[in-house]
Amino acid sequence: MSEATPRRRTRGGGGAARRAERGAVSFETAKYIQRNIPNFEVLNEEALEVIEYNAETVLEEIGVNFVDNPAALDRWREAGADVSGERVRIPRGLARKLCATAPSEFTQHARNPEKSVVIGGKNLVLAPVYGPPFVRDINGGRRYATMDDFSKFVKLAYMSKWLHHSGGTVCEPTDVPVNKRHLDMLMAHMTLSDKPFMGSVTEPSRAQDSVEMCEILFGKDFVQQNTVMTSLTNINSPMTFDDVMMGSLEVYAKNNQACIISPFIVGGAMAPVSVAGTLTQVLAEVLAGVAYSQIVHPGAPAIFGAFVSSIDMNSGAPTFGTPEASLVTYGAGQLARRLNLPFRSAGSFCGSKLPDAQAAYETANSLNMGLMSGVNFMLHSCGWLEGGLVADFEKFVMDADQLGTLHGLAKGVPIDGDNLAMDAIREVGPGGHYLGCAHTQANFKSAFWKSDLLDYKPFETWEEEGARDTRTLAANRVTKLLDTYEQPAMDPSIKEALDAYVAQKKENMPDSFL
Amino acid sequence: MSEATPRRRTRGGGGAARRAERGAVSFETAKYIQRNIPNFEVLNEEALEVIEYNAETVLEEIGVNFVDNPAALDRWREAGADVSGERVRIPRGLARKLCATAPSEFTQHARNPEKSVVIGGKNLVLAPVYGPPFVRDINGGRRYATMDDFSKFVKLAYMSKWLHHSGGTVCEPTDVPVNKRHLDMLMAHMTLSDKPFMGSVTEPSRAQDSVEMCEILFGKDFVQQNTVMTSLTNINSPMTFDDVMMGSLEVYAKNNQACIISPFIVGGAMAPVSVAGTLTQVLAEVLAGVAYSQIVHPGAPAIFGAFVSSIDMNSGAPTFGTPEASLVTYGAGQLARRLNLPFRSAGSFCGSKLPDAQAAYETANSLNMGLMSGVNFMLHSCGWLEGGLVADFEKFVMDADQLGTLHGLAKGVPIDGDNLAMDAIREVGPGGHYLGCAHTQANFKSAFWKSDLLDYKPFETWEEEGARDTRTLAANRVTKLLDTYEQPAMDPSIKEALDAYVAQKKENMPDSFL
User: Where is this region: Disordered (chains A, B) (predicted)?
Assistant: First the structure.
């Protein structure tokens, strides 16, 4: 079972330990979720077989495009595909056979070994929002994200009990030149946190830089023998694999680092308007992408991804937390498990412009569905706002708090003498109450998930305290967390080597904002 | 499948029909949900058997109290129980055997036959919040509820596409004497709406009044042969059945009207602090309650209820949308199905004082869980705020909108030629888009659930329109709905008879606010 590990980050010193002890903000990190509940499945065997058959028909008859990537076309030809121009048609059975070398689960190592995660199986690893060019907070409003914002999010993720992973581009640090951002972002993940993180995919050369920085952090041999990064390779749905994403994938796969291979679906625009049709296309795309990663390097870790939203057919806007997206995700989870691949989907998705009720309904719909659908790696699990355009500080800690409910649900229902509580029922009897009974006294501290944020106070107390809404409470929590942040310790020689690497890289290229 | 029935309420007149046609607010009522998805189950066979065995041990060894109700004790004695003082100990197997005469599903008739609902099986019927003494809206704030508020909620429920049921005490009309409230509340449900509704349980005599008013509305013979009311009988957990609730249950059961028999659980206070212990007690209580209803009248419709919240062990406040409450509800659903009884649980539960993000997270957690756990009758499915102390106008329409997502999820994944969409995938091909393809054009109108409330507009448009949050949008929708409300037609002679009945009843008793 998933249990919080009550380990304070103390930087090794007795003084730091005492300071941490006095800290107002509780600070523990939970182990990644190990589900003790079943997955929710919406497709029966017949439906699964039809979709699997049709996906192979798509690959064989229609095919996929590998764009501006002659080496990929050569590799596919050699593997037995029918290549014509940039179109790759994959004979029935070939992609599935190639996928078989990908591991069903793998460990992504963190520099703090206690925070390494196992991705796959019955596990769920939670990582923050990825990609927004804007940030928002209650005082500063909506604005372009900066490196300072980025660092704050890394700190918040580091201090969030229910986040297991530091993520990647938690926001776009738009004040740093595009061609240097990945260096600063990686440096922040590596030095401000000790949780696992993601590598850059915006250019193959930046993927290579990510590998080289990890070689400094973890040691070159360790990186070649172990997975220390996960990366997000989006497919340009429908059925298009571009050279930048595939070039990055090639770097990671060759170095045994993990790739999420993820159709990017706005239902009705990038995929058919029906759930079954979308699932067919998603499976075809993932089969082609994972197969390609295994052609590049058999055995490289690959994750079956599915970014799924619906569309508002009036405005064309993507919509989130919708039932159709949930149904696609439940089905995709089943398809991933039948391929023995780890599954990535769901997140704190919402279309709302504010961290209000709309945002929370949509997010809760998606988070619950993510747990139930068997997701193994949940990117965007907190902080997403406005269709992914904005990383919101308050929503980050609001969502991160809700992630605790997933840990609680995943525990399932233990059936043993103590949990059956027959002694308590006998002790209390008809008309009594359980507040003071022995069983309650022995178990109340761990019995219920406890929010670090939500307000359960009586109306009168709440009103006296200023009638604060969730966003206001969250803003206070953001401040409190950042005020009490302490950087995890790092070997100074490693820090120096990383600094030197980044400085040298930056020196050798002119700034570019393109 | 659940489908919206596009039937306008037109009062029969061509003029009214044309006015309705011009109405700004779309007005359809969906059929109750018929699930095409499986239930989510957290207990395996062994766990179920242990809990079932222990529940019977509770009944046999500890027993339950029937308070101030000598007739009930006589009935139990006659049925074979061991009665000592007010304690009723039920031999293993007896309660289960008695429960067998309760129907596994039943129809609750509405005065508009198209709005009758089937409670049980794979169906889910949604009804609004029940019981709050306070109301809140964005302009008026929090205040004691009045009959005017009550009527507004009945109108909103009548106009809500996704609500199948008008509910009961949607708020307490505190400006009406306690002993006359039930008359005014029933009159409002009967005349302002044509959806099914609930009867009074605050005194056995008021249950009898409810039956008599239904005899006027539906005809005496019809009521004796059909179920036209559902009622909420709470058990005073642990294991206490009071005379008021049981007296009302006796009236309804004798008249073949439906009773929800519902343990009222704040985990850690009214039940053990563990999920398995709570399930044991819930099952024991429901077995005793349903068995009693069947002793009174074999075959009377009875619903396995479970009101479940957790407790904040620091403050003692009840908490909602928690993982522990979800696990209890999933388990209780399984236990109900093994008893072949309809299941009532879940709702728009939250502890928040405002319809903000906390409220929406908690509510979405509970609504999703309610669908997945196989709930057949969901009381409180919209409008609940502040632990049930407040019925909130904005949250009522916000939640009611979200109920649409449950309808969408319940559809599952149809697998047929059109849904598989292979023609669309062929037509569009790699790199294209689906917006204009034939399949999308043919299906986009019904493909996605569409919110009537949430904002999907681009940031700039949203900002120009006043940067409104969900609550503000909801307040506008409340006004718009109430402004366009039209009363459903009723036979004037029935209306007169109801008025006469209520007037005569009121005349014969002094006001009481106790």
Answer: 1-22
